[in-house]
Each structure stands twice: as structure tokens, then as C-alpha cells.
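Pipeline run #58 for the internal structure catalog. This entry was flagged by the ingest filter as a single-chain record with no existing model, so it goes straight to prediction. Upstream metadata was stripped on purpose; only the residue string is passed forward. Reviewer on rotation: M.T. Logging verbosity set to normal.
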Amino acid sequence: RELPIRPDYVGKNLPTSRREAVAVMLREHDGVDRVVIQEPVEQGEPRP
């Protein structure tokens, strides 16, 4: 049986600024389950 996916469910809420980026990695695609909050970068710089 598969669990339903609900976009309105929050397991943990971490405040971020509008300039920060949130990267979500899934084991099936990235080899690891991880959520990373990336620091803001200057305009024109590539994100790591």
C-alpha cells in the first residue's frame, strides 16, 4: 500500500529568508534523502 502525498502536511517548519534556497534530495534520484537550506549568493554567482 502506498501512502498519500499531501502538500499541506508539515513535519518540521524551519524559517528561511526569501534569499535562501531550499534543495530537496531524494534517495531515488540523488542517492540520499536530504533537505539543505543554501545561503544566499550574490547575483550572477552559480549555486553550488
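catalog note: The radius of gyration is 14 Å.
catalog note: Helices lie at 27-30.
status: ready for reviewer M.T.
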